[in-house]
Design brief:
Distance between the termini: 132 Å
Number of helices: 6
Strand order of the largest sheet: 5-4-3-8-9-11-10
Largest sheet: 7 strands, mixed
Helix content: 25-40%
Structural class: alpha+beta
Radius of gyration: 58 Å
Strand content: 25-35%
Oligomer: single chain
Number of strands: 19
Shape: elongated
């Protein structure tokens, strides 16, 4: 298992730089601009399409537009950055440290096969550090780089290669040779390419209701000077693109004498296969009604060719009309609002007073009922006293006159009279 992992790490070390070279430095593509343009019929439309990256500057003299250079970063004993060597297609590789001449180099065929690997012979302790492989394409404005760390050891057992999560690490035995890989086989970095044949610009027209895959091709432009027009529009000089479009980077489309049939979707496509550039700009053109022609007035003929005296035009003061309501209706309206408010307040006050008085009367009636109940209860107590006292007298009388009924009737009358007398008191 350990052997398999070691082999995978070694394969990754050699394959990752190639993958980096294929994917790195990709340029932006797709739609970069979209506009809606509305112009009247009969006018001239200019659909702008500019890109400075499409300006044609061919590298005829191989004047160092492509450059590769290796740098070394040391962290001990002191932090320092050192340029190891550099190379371009039009110049030989240049080694900056005299100690490294003949010991450190890159293949002479680097810009032919895309192999920019750094070869170090007879590794010494001062070679330890982080090496950076930098590729620059000044014409295409592409910059790519990759880092590899080199450690030097005196033990054969510690010699290995691995990935630390950020970069490849080489642990090399002192005195041996090592190759730090930097491979980029993109056609951008290699020789033998026709740059002018891989730079193309074209315009498409999509009428309303037509699918994008059925759009009409208007014109094709090539950096080599070739031009292909499609349809009668360019032949009739209705549409045009500047002849020096690749010199100025201006691929704008001009449409003269707009008609309703020119309505639709126009798209400008810029392809730079050499640099990997693809840009697309979309314009939705709407043709409106034509502008009314300005009326022409006949020239005035003055008698004896004497000019009329100049009169200064005095601007009249601005008058603001303010419509005021009729005064009588205005007063009656406000008086009605005031009376309605007053009557509402008076009604509320009367209701409050009536409710208050009713509540007071109910309180007085309740007090009178309570007092009457108290008097009745007091009289009942007095009658009970009489009944309690009189039976004592009746017992005494009955003891003397048991058989006399008339006496008993007289005594009962007396008791009733006494009871009535107490109530009236």
């Amino acid at each position: 298992m350990h052997l398999v992992m070691t082999l995978l790490r070694i394969v990754a070390v050699f394959l990752l730089p190639g993958a980096w070279g294929q994917s790195g430095g990709s340029t932006l593509g797709g739609v970069v601009e979209a506009k809606n343009i509305t112009l009247p019929a009969g006018s001239k439309a200019v659909l702008p399409c500019h890109s400075p990256r499409m300006v044609w500057t061919q590298d005829r003299l191989k004047d160092r537009q492509r450059v590769v250079h290796w740098d070394l970063v040391r962290s001990s004993p002191e932090y320092s950055v050192e340029r190891v060597l550099d190379m371009s297609p039009g110049a030989r590789q240049r080694v900056y440290n005299g100690f490294n001449k003949g010991r450190i180099s890159i293949p002479d065929s680097a810009f032919n096969d895309g192999n920019f690997s750094l070869i170090i012979n007879n590794v010494v302790l001062t070679d330890k550090g982080v090496y950076t492989c930098n590729l620059h394409h000044h014409y295409c404005k592409i910059h790519q780089s990759i880092q590899i760390q080199l450690n030097v050891t005196k033990s054969v057992r510690k010699e290995k290669r691995y990935w630390d999560g950020e970069k490849t690490v080489f642990v090399v035995l002192l005195g041996k040779s090592v190759v730090l890989p930097c491979v980029n086989r993109r056609s951008l970095w290699r020789e033998g390419l026709q740059e002018d044949q891989q730079q193309v610009a074209h315009w498409d027209f999509q009428p309303p209701g037509v699918r994008p895959d059925r759009a009409d091709r208007l014109v094709d432009l090539y950096a080599s000077g070739e031009r292909r027009d499609y349809g009668p529009r360019f032949a009739q000089s209705k549409m045009s693109v500047e002849e020096d479009a690749f010199t100025l980077g201006d691929f704008s489309l001009s449409i003269a004498g707009l008609r309703p049939a020119d309505k639709g979707l126009y798209s400008c496509h810029l392809h730079h296969h050499y640099c990997g550039l693809y840009e697309r700009r979309i314009f939705r053109l709407t043709v409106g009604p034509s502008l009314p022609s300005a009326p022409t007035t006949a020239p005035r003929i003055l008698k004896n060719d004497v000019p009329e005296p100049r009169t200064e035009v005095v601007e009249a003061p601005r008058v603001v009309n303010v419509i005021l309501p009729e005064q009588r209706g205005y007063f009656v309206q406000h008086l009605g609002h005031f009376l309605a408010t007053f009557l509402l307040l008076a009604f509320i006050v009367v209701v409050v007073i009536v409710l208050t008085r009713r509540r007071k009367n109910r309180g007085l009636e309740d007090d009178l009922r309570r007092s009457d109940r108290g008097n009745v209860i007091t009289g009942g107590e007095m009658s009970l006293d009489c009944t309690e006292l009189r039976p004592c007298n009746q017992d005494r009388l009955n003891s003397d006159h048991k058989n006399n009924l008339l006496k008993e009737r007289d005594m009962t009358k007396d008791c009733n009279r006494d009871f009535d007398g107490k109530l009236w008191k």
